[in-house]
Amino acid sequence: MTERKANIYDVAQLAEVSHQTVSRVLNNHPSVKPATREKVESAIAELKYRPNQAARQLVTSRSQMIGILIAGTELYGPWAILNAMEREARLEGYSVISISVSPDSPDSWVDAIDQLRNLDIDGVITIALSKQIVKEVENSLASATIVIVDTEPSKKFDAVNIENYVGGKIATEHLINLGHRNIVHVMGPSDGYEGQQRREGYEEAMKDAKLKIDVLQGDWSIGTGYEIGREIADRKITPTAIFTSNDHLALGVMKALTEKKLRIPEDVSIVGFDNIPEAAYFSPALTTVHQDFDELGKLAINRMLIQLKESTSRAALTIPPTLIVRESTQQLKAGK
């Protein structure tokens, strides 16, 4: 015979309190005394009680669900942020529903938003999506709390970002400090906030050093990095250093340069951005800008929960990046 699952009345009986008190503990009500809360939590643990989500929604008028919209991509960064959000949300008693959208397909935006509306989610977090998609979310889910991540900040929403401009600048300054003067930047998508900010950091560092700016348009893919790497290798004067807007671009560039018999870092130093797990195992290991994706995800969930509990003024939060120096960069030799 299947063992009966414990209910709220079982918890109340074991803790020697009313079922209303158990409900207040479950909903984190401030009126519960610490000693009473401890008794109830011990009873919950002993009975392995799990509250019924539907019942809680009737009481609290909340679904305890957060919708996350993310571009349909295999890029490491957005999915690392999503994983961190899911872990943090579970710790706070929330479920996360993630839906992929195609950035170039308005139909996919509408379909994703309709799915979230049908689930009656409490809030929406967007990851690395354009202002147009965020606007669609705002117009279609007027009652939902919205937090945006890796997107241009807005006074209407909480925004959580890596300091992409700073990352682009420290990557470029690292190469300048190694003596490099002919430095190419391979940027991300021209319409993306992250890529724009990283480019601006590069350009500012080059201007400060009175060096010529040299930017090549890319996206986030290894294939594009490879094609751009072949183009760079075929130049009459090969740059001594390259800063790519993400690590996937760097990997493609490195393969192309190696095929053209250019040595890294002896002939060309390379810096990436993201510090994907594979970066330390590139050959040579990649110098790159590290983003704390876990912290980014935690901050986004925390801002969401703050707004759900009591709507406050909107905030733009940023996390500083750090440079991870590995084998793909070296001091420029005299005469280069």
Descriptive report:
By secondary structure, the chain is an alpha/beta fold. The protein folds into three domains: 8-60, Orthogonal Bundle (434 Repressor (Amino-terminal Domain)), CATH 1.10.260; 65-162 and 293-319, Response regulator (Rossmann fold), CATH 3.40.50.2300; 164-291, 3-Layer(aba) Sandwich (Rossmann fold). Helices cover 45% and strands 17% of the residues. It contains twelve helices and twelve strands. It has helices at residues 8-15, 19-26, 34-47, 53-60, 76-91, 106-119, 131-140, 164-177, 193-208, 222-233, 247-259, 293-309; strands at 65-71, 95-101, 123-127, 145-149, 158-162, 183-187, 215-217, 241-244, 269-274, 287-290, 316-319, 322-324. It has a six-stranded parallel beta sheet with strand order 2-1-3-4-5-11, with helices on both faces. It has a six-stranded mixed beta sheet with strand order 7-6-8-9-10-12, sandwiched between helices. α7 links the parallel β3 (123-127) and β4 (145-149). The protein is elongated and about 85 Å long. 40% of the residues are buried. Mean pLDDT is 88; it is low at 57-61.
